[in-house]
Amino acid sequence: MANVYMDKIEAFVRANEENVIRDIKRLVDIPSVAGTPEPGAPNGAGPAAALKEALALAGEMGLATGEFEGHMGWAELPGSTDKQIATITHMDVVPAGNGWTGDPFNMRVQDGWLIGRGVADDKGPGVLCLYALKFLKENNVPLKYSVRALLGTSEETGMEDIDRYLAGNRAPDFCFSPDAEFPVCNGEKGHFRADLVSPVCGGQVLAFEGGVAFNAVPDRAAALVRAEGLLPAENITLEPGEEAGTVWVRGWGKSGHAAMPEGTRNAIGLVVDYLLANKVGNEAETAYFEVLHKLHASTDGSALGIAADDGLFTPLTVIGGTMKMENGRMLQSVDSRFPTNTTGEAIRDTLTALCGSAAAVENVGIAVPFYIAADAAPIRALIDTYNEVTGENAEPFTMGGGTYARHFPLAVSFGPERQDLQLPEFAGPMHGANEGAKIEHLMQALKIYILALVRLQEIDL
What we know:
CATH superfamily of the largest domain: Zn peptidases
Strand order of the largest sheet: 1-2-6-3-7-22
Largest sheet: 6 strands, mixed
Number of helices: 9
Shape: elongated
């Protein structure tokens, strides 16, 4: 059945390119970083506003819409059975952070690319899913299984939205999440999150701040210290503090996603190493910074003693995402993505032993890895669709990123990013400054998603 629609899919994608760009901008221009819960907006006004606009867009397409307690919304087409296929994307985004060359919440088009927070993660893909349902509806594609395009509001801050949704709604029989890379990701590493918390040190460090999200490598950080005679260093600048004898030590790094830290430079680590090298800090502060030095010394966990590689997933990664000071205590967030030959509990215990009395390991969160066999029928349907459209001979892969897929009985992540994507100088990665998405790739992804939803109707679930 799928091949019958190829010409219509091609025509639909060509005809709707400008509409897709317009509608992605409608969503990207809404700042939807998590905020203070409000009535009807459990994840803050921004995510709620973006969800409302996405549902309005779906309604304009003639799709039936619904929402669950402000956590999750959806557009839907009915099928002839009680089984359901779903896509799931999210309308919330990580904070903009620094280093942008334009307004992150005013999407712009540049040399065939969309630039703005959420164009790739995950508002652009969310719009593609709605257009895929629009095609199914306009072309009266017979549906054995209902198709629901789920739209979340707290993917970047713990995915409580999907937990709430699944507590009150049945899980789809198969789901894919366009929140990663093509071709098909059929496994995700485990996820460890915690804070390394110092004692109240009462020393030379008066303030420390850095990072915008626990799952992003920070490109800048700053510590206010009481010290004299400090000199600038590579990637370090100095500014006088308001109080005599104080100075702001500022680190300048390179941002990126916590799951893909290769090529990044962590600004918190730069400041920590500078303070250690210049002997800024009392005994307690120095002991704490020695722990942080090991955290930032490598992104594979080797300096911490938690490195792991199972041959199925890529090796363990670990980064420090945010740094702050509360009530005289410094808090460094830790984000690790781990393969199957270690556990979150093992990482916690190793960090606890390493910290000793220098820091406490607090606010621990753990998600286990998941993996679905590459020869499962829905997985083959997706990979075959991708290969047919692209002319490639790709196979499923595993990754360190965390998506909604891990919350469902049978789900994977499915594009639209590309593992070999070469970013132009003016565009950045997901979670980074100048987040970019190539229009040509988005439109090809739309073609893939439409064909995949048609092909999934042909298999037994």
